[in-house]
Amino acid sequence: MNSMNVIRGRPRGHAMINRDKLYIDGSWTRSTGTDQIMVEDPKNGQIIGSVPDGTLADVDAAVSAARKSFSIWSESSVEHRIEILTNLSESFKARSDTLAEVITMEVGTPIEYSKIAMVGTPRVVAKSYAKLLDSYQWESQIRNSLIVKEPIGVCGFITPWNFPLHQIIGKVAPAIAAGCTMILKPSREAPLNAFLLADMLHEIGLPNGVFNLVSGRGSSVGSRLSSHPGVDMISFTGSTNAGVKVTEQAAESVKRVTLELGGKSANVILEDADLSKAIKSSISACFANSGQTCSALTRLIVPESRISEIIPLVKERVEGYKVGDPMNPSTKCGPMVSSEQKESVLEYINSGIEEGAELIAGGPDPIEGLEDGYFVRPTAFSGVLPSMRIWKEEIFGPVLSITTYTSEEEALLLANDSDYGLSGGVWSEDIDRAITFARKMKTGQISVNGGPFNVSAPFGGYKKSGNGRELGIHGFEEFLEVKSIQKPIER
Ligand code: NAD
Question: pTM score, two decimals?
Answer without folding.
Answer: 0.96
